[in-house]
Amino acid sequence: MNNKHWSIDEIVEIYNTPLLNLIYDASTVHRLHHDPNKIQVSSLISIKTGGCPEDCGYCPQAARYHTGVEGNQLLDVQQVKAQALRARSAGSSRVCLGAAWRNVKDGPEFDQVLEMVRTITQLDMEVCCTLGMLTENQAKRLEEAGLYAYNHNIDSSEEYYKEVISTRAFDDRLSTINNVRKTSITLCSGGIIGMGESLKDRAGMLKILANMNPQPESVPINALVPVEGTPLAEEKPVSIWDMVRMIATSRIVLPHTQIRLSAGRTQMSQEGQTLCFLAGANSIFAGDKLLTTPNPDSNEDHELFNLLGIKTQSPFEKHAKREPVEQTATSSALNEKPKWTRPGHVIERNIRASKKDQI
């Protein structure tokens, strides 16, 4: 349980600690709660790529931007199983299934995702889904299918969120997280740095995550990968020092959480990644692509792990496996009609990016 209530000022103070002291403090916390020589490895499978109706300023999968990412149909169960088996053979303990949806809609496609979850869980792998916003009933159906984790990032502080996304509300993110928490599914929720946010915004994001009770079991920290055609294409890459500080601060305020060093690793040297591990990162995404953006090859990761003497975490080390159960009357679609918000405010750079080819 989380008994500490963090303030933004406290988190900013931690972030600004002299760097060597900050890394030492974070590493000390890390060693109290985790094996410093173990890394949890996840693989991300895009089960439905592109065509998303949202306007997230960082995302090449938004249909309104001109990024060359074409919308594809949902993969079938056997295709996903084959990719999961390849991920397992490469050392991944978890598979995350990502669909470029605004929110989950009951029907054949969601039923297909539930079958994917059941199938991969039977391979003795942890299964995570990131499908957009979902209702309480949909979360319960995922739980019954055996889902291990649900990812729903809050992206940034509540204040800066409005500068990046206009098609959904921050409160809807929290509502989905609350729906997940009504089940036994573990929560994965983090955000992105390098979108033009301030240090206060970074601290604001961590404040929300750290003050959740319980705290998320997994927190991905992403460095923005600027993609041509998106509104954030011209943002400067995050420095490794900012990333180390963000990882270390996350570790201190989220002591029991697995902190995932996520997007942006292709821009980091092995030495930079090692500093992040020393500062408390104990999870990564493996594979040469994260949805649509580049990621280091699995062989490069294993080479680094061997150099550092790091071992990969086995499935279900942190939380017990939940066996899928037969669907019950309560797990069937309820034809719910949630009122997910469309705030309606305008983000000028998002508008410009959507009209780029028309100018």
TrEMBL record:
Sequence positions that bind [2Fe-2S] cluster: C96, C128, C188, R260
Basic and acidic residues: compositionally biased ranges: 316-325, 345-359
SMART domains: BATS (SM00876), Elp3 (SM00729)
Pathway it works in: Cofactor biosynthesis; biotin biosynthesis; biotin from 7,8-diaminononanoate: step 2/2
Keyword terms, alphabetized: 2Fe-2S, 4Fe-4S, Biotin biosynthesis, Iron, Iron-sulfur, Metal-binding, S-adenosyl-L-methionine, Transferase
Catalysis: reaction(s): (4R,5S)-dethiobiotin + (sulfur carrier)-SH + 2 reduced [2Fe-2S]-[ferredoxin] + 2 S-adenosyl-L-methionine = (sulfur carrier)-H + biotin + 2 5'-deoxyadenosine + 2 L-methionine + 2 oxidized [2Fe-2S]-[ferredoxin]
Domain Radical SAM core positions: 37-265
Catalytic activity, EC: 2.8.1.6
Nucleus among keywords: no
Record-level GO BP terms: biotin biosynthetic process
Cofactor(s) for this UniProt protein: [4Fe-4S] cluster; [2Fe-2S] cluster
Transmembrane segments: none
Cofactor info, note text: Binds 1 [4Fe-4S] cluster. The cluster is coordinated with 3 cysteines and an exchangeable S-adenosyl-L-methionine.
Domain of life: Bacteria
Residues noted as binding [4Fe-4S] cluster in the record, renumbered to the chain: C52, C56, C59
Family classification: Belongs to the radical SAM superfamily. Biotin synthase family.
Entry protein name: Biotin synthase
Naturally occurring in which organism (per UniProt): Anditalea andensis
